[in-house]
Design brief:
Elements: H1 4-10, H2 12-19, H3 22-27, E1 30-33, E2 40-43, H4 54-57, H5 72-85, E3 89-90, H6 117-120, E4 130-137, E5 154-164, H7 173-188, E6 195-204, E7 207-216, E8 219-232, E9 235-249, H8 250-258, H9 264-267, H10 269-275, H11 285-294, H12 306-317, H13 322-347, H14 358-375, H15 381-391, H16 403-422, H17 424-435, H18 440-450, H19 454-461, H20 469-477, E10 500-501, H21 502-505, E11 511-520, E12 523-526, E13 528-529, E14 543-545, E15 548-555, E16 561-565, E17 576-581, H22 583-607, E18 613-618, E19 623-628, H23 635-650, E20 655-661, H24 662-669, E21 683-689, E22 693-696, E23 711-720, E24 723-730, H25 731-752, H26 759-791, E25 796-799, H27 804-814, E26 818-822, E27 829-832, H28 836-842, E28 846-850, E29 853-857, H29 861-871
Parallel strand pairs: 3-4, 10-13, 25-26
Antiparallel strand pairs: 1-2, 2-6, 4-5, 5-9, 6-7, 7-8, 8-9, 11-12, 11-17, 12-16, 14-15, 14-17, 15-16, 18-19, 19-24, 20-21, 21-22, 23-24, 26-27, 27-29, 28-29
Helix pairs in contact: 5-7, 5-8, 10-15, 13-14, 13-15, 13-16, 14-16, 15-16, 18-20, 22-23, 26-27
Length: 872
């Protein structure tokens, strides 16, 4: 990680050159140092002495808006119009779930859309320069949301991006700063003397460069990062592609132009108008306005003692216990934010769960339910979702279609929350009695393991949660995506050229000729191969090389394909070999892989467009696909998915495979291409089933859907919270499965002595008869128990049937010593005596016990009865 301070000191001369932008000098800006924090800033006001951070003078725009008053969506319209007139292409948003990335779960910034390939210069961006209204999800500020007035878990980062290459300069520092300055002064109407630019440096991932933040009346409105350098062993050098990464805060510009007490009131005004029906603090308006100006200081990440700061604010307000009154109001703002985040996430296919990014969504959902329960708020979440969709409809009309789904998801989540809460009280009280108090780890464990929110713990115990608890929970629950370290078990292939994949030229090629490049133990590397290596959830091909069995095939990140053979000593470098693929195995893999695409397409039609692939595995005999879905798939839904998948088969649709540039493919199909997860490379292999499915996929597939023959869903499993697994078979293995089931049905019919179509009725009749017999047996057992307990005088008793319940009732009546033995039942020997354990051993019975009770099982009840008579 680049150290900003070291960089600034080491390259002071360079930094001076980079920060002394010609635009600032031409416009007459003065470069100053903040007298409070030392921050370097640029201003047109020669009398300004502080940098404009809200911690210094608070928000000066509350009740005193700057510029032309516009709504949230109108502010976006103004940005889009201004930047379009100045040479930028406006592009549509990407999903908030970053499926094109293997290192992120959610889209956290607009630049994440274009990393790594466009930023690295490996592919062309969709436009250059461009402007994108990108919704982003971040969860580290959960505890600040509602309280600070400006923090969100969901926000639109308007990204202005330009990609400058050695052969093409698009726009750079002076032009970017001039554009945002003109937007603020011309389009928004902010007085130029009130704009303050901060100097800073951005660093990350081995790259770094200058950045300029801009503030107005104490509010940061955006940040322009100039990705310009990369680290080297002896210093740094210019990047080949220099990128403008400009994040403009849409909510900030709308907020400052309206001067409302919080950003929430302007970002989702209809939602807050409804939520305020449930609570408004009994505090004078003047006090609320003054607090709003100071609320920018409230940041759990930056304040060491939040309690002390709150007391200080209450003193300045001259209003003791202000936060006691304001806290429920802040929670309503948080509910407004959290519901919007959940609506975006659900629309884009992510759900609350206990794994991955779903963990963060569950934190939000349970905070909502906890607040509603605590304050007795009967909030109609369906109405909240509808109002959110209405507020942003001009920008994101697709959210209207997600309202019903979001309501359904939250109802399922509410059931889970209340079930965990039902069990919470005794668990928390027991823990407090044991420890005397609770520490931060206890709060984390109670939430992670049992779903008990920090607020619920506080209500039960009176113990205040630690400061920043939601950030701590978020960090503890974060599941980082890690690549499988499979290559550690493979031999070193450095210096060996890529293997040419013949299986992409002709999937029907089952025999080929190739040259041996290298032999490493039992691993053979060829110049080309038709053997498909394990990958994309598909097992490897097997077969032969010169008659020697090939048992495994792997591919390295460098593109070298290794064949594991039974005996590597039979191969020599440079020789020509004949490879033969196990055709039966290959074709079964092809059918299973194409079936995965068809089942996914069918599931999206039956369950909804929120369904995404969460994993898959295709082997020779069976396969499965994991789907994101917020509740159990019903049998009726499974049957419909199976029917639709087989309908696709009967239509005999062509399955096309071709290569396409990443940017072109995304523009044509969208990010639904990445159903199987992130796919590396600037060129993608597309598998398209006309009118049904299109994905970036590297697997082997049939030529037409009709080649599959038959699809049979075997069963459904819940493999994780919010992930449903469909296990299936295709082609000849599906037929064999159906035939085997038919044979079992015939045998059942023979046993029941009825025709096959009468098996269900006959089985039900037999089950009912068995239940009736069981009830009669229980009644007889009760009568037998009562008789033995009251009239039997012996202390060793042999019964035709004995259960533990019967034994306990007899012993309760007759007392010790007593030995009970049953000719049937398990266990069927019970001893009640002071030395019960020793007695049961003497009887030769498998079992044991403690104190005056022991039990066991015997296959020879009459012999045990004889021995027992000898003991007593």
């Amino acid at each position: 990680m680049v150290d900003k301070k070291v960089l600034k000191k080491k390259f002071q001369e360079e930094w001076e050159k980079h920060y002394k932008l010609q635009f600032f000098e031409d416009m007459g800006f003065v470069r100053k140092k903040c007298k409070v924090c030392g921050q370097t800033f640029w201003t047109l006001d020669p009398d300004r002495e502080v940098c404009g951070e809200p911690e210094h003078n608070g928000y000066q725009f509350i009740g005193n808006p700057a510029g032309k008053r516009r709504s949230y969506t109108e502010t976006w319209d103004a940005m889009a119009e201004f930047y379009a007139k100045n040479g930028h292409t406006i592009i549509d948003r990407y999903p908030v779930v970053a499926r094109w990335r293997d290192d992120l779960y959610f889209t956290i910034a607009s630049i994440a859309v274009f990393q790594p390939y466009a930023v690295a210069g490996e592919v062309e961006p969709p436009a250059n320069p461009l402007l994108i209204p990108q919704p982003c999800l971040r969860f580290k500020d959960v505890e600040n949301v509602g309280l600070s007035g400006r923090h969100f878990t969901n926000f639109v980062m308007v990204g202005q991006h330009a990609f400058n290459r050695p052969d093409k300069e698009v726009l750079w520092k002076n032009e970017a700063i001039e554009l945002i300055y003109r937007f603020m002064t011309e389009a928004v109407g902010i007085p130029k003397e009130e704009i303050v630019f901060h100097e800073d440096v951005w660093a990350g991932g081995g790259n770094f460069g200058p950045s300029i933040e801009y503030f107005v009346r104490g509010l940061e409105l955006g940040n322009v990062v100039f990705m310009q350098f990369k680290e080297t062993d002896d210093g740094y050098e210019q990047l080949q592609t220099r990128v403008i990464d400009h994040g403009i805060g849409l909510s900030r510009f709308a907020w400052i132009s309206n001067g409302t007490r919080t950003a929430y009131d302007v970002v989702f005004p209809s939602v807050m108008e409804y939520l305020k029906e449930f609570y408004t603090p009994d505090v004078p308006e003047t006090v609320l306005n003054e607090f709003a100006k100071m609320s920018g200081k409230l940041n759990f990440d930056e304040v060491e003692d939040m309690g002390a700061l709150m007391r200080e604010i209450e003193q300045k307000l001259n209003y003791p216990n202000f936060f006691e009154q304001y806290r429920p109001f802040a929670e309503l703002y948080a509910i407004g934010d959290h519901t919007k985040t959940l609506l975006f996430a659900v629309n884009d296919g992510a759900f609350p769960s206990n794994v991955g990014g779903g963990y963060n969504l569950r934190v939000l959902a349970r905070r909502i339910f906890s607040d509603m329960d605590r304050y007795g708020w009967d909030i109609d979440l369906g109405k909240v979702f509808e109002l959110h969709a209405k507020d942003v409809e001009p920008m994101f009309p697709e959210l209207k279609e997600a309202v019903d789904l979001a309501v359904d998801v939250m109802e399922e989540e509410r059931k889970k929350y209340h079930e965990s809460k039902r069990k919470a009280k005794s668990r928390v009280i027991t823990l407090v009695k044991k420890k005397g108090t609770l520490d931060v780890n206890d709060f984390v464990t109670l939430y992670q393991s049992y779903g008990i929110t920090p607020e619920d713990v506080r209500d039960i115990t009176g113990i205040e949660p630690p400061a920043g608890i939601y950030s701590i929970i978020e960090e503890a629950g974060k599941q980082k995506v890690k690549k499988k370290e499979e290559e550690s078990e493979l031999p070193d292939v450095e210096g060996i050229p890529k293997t040419y994949p013949l299986y992409y030229d002709d999937v029907e090629m089952m025999e080929f000729e190739a040259r041996v490049l290298k032999v490493i133990g039992d691993w053979v590397i060829l110049d080309k191969t038709a053997f498909y290596p394990e990958g994309g959830g598909q097992d490897a091909d097997t077969g032969e090389l010169n008659g020697v069995p090939v048992v495994d095939v792997r591919k390295t990140e460098s593109g070298v394909i290794l064949h594991l053979v039974k005996d590597g000593s039979r191969f020599r470098e440079g020789e020509t070999v004949i490879g033969k693929i196990n055709e039966t195995r290959r074709r079964r893999h092809m059918r299973h892989h194409t079936t995965a695409h068809l089942i996914l397409a069918a599931a999206r039609r039956v369950l909804g467009k929120h369904v995404w692939q969460a994993g898959a595995h295709k082997s020779e005999d069976i396969a499965h696909i994991d789907l994101t879905h917020y509740k159990r798939i019903t049998d009726e839904e499974l049957r419909e998915i199976e029917r639709l998948a087989n309908e696709y088969v009967m239509k005999n649709i062509p399955v096309k495979t071709y290569w396409m540039g990443r940017t072109e493919a995304e523009q044509k199909f969208g990010v639904i291409l990445y159903q199987g997860g992130a796919v590396p490379g600037k060129v993608l292999r597309i598998v398209e089933i006309d009118g049904t499915d299109a994905e970036a996929c590297g697997g082997t597939h049939v030529k037409r859907t009709g080649d599959i023959g038959l699809i049979k869903i075997v069963k459904r499993e819940s493999v994780a919270d919010g992930v449903e697994r469909i296990i299936y078979k295709s082609g000849d293995v599906a037929l064999a499965f159906v035939q085997e089931r038919e044979e079992r049905l015939k045998k059942a019919a023979e046993v029941l002595r009825v025709p096959v179509d009468e098996v269900p009725a006959a089985a039900e009749k037999m089950f009912n008869q068995w239940k009736d017999a069981e009830k009669r047996a229980e009644k007889l057992a009760e009568e037998l128990t009562r008789y033995v307990a009251e009239y039997e005088k012996e202390r060793v008793i042999l019964l035709p049937y004995l259960s533990q319940k019967m034994a306990e009732r007899i012993a309760e009546k007759k007392g010790k010593p007593l030995i009970l033995i049953g000719r049937s039942g398990k266990p069927n020997v019970f001893v009640y005596a002071d030395n019960a354990g020793e007695i049961i051993k003497k009887l030769g019975v498998r079992g044991g016990g403690k104190g005056d009770k022991a039990m066991g099982v015997t296959e020879e009840p009459d012999e045990v009865y004889r021995r027992a008579r000898e003991v007593f």
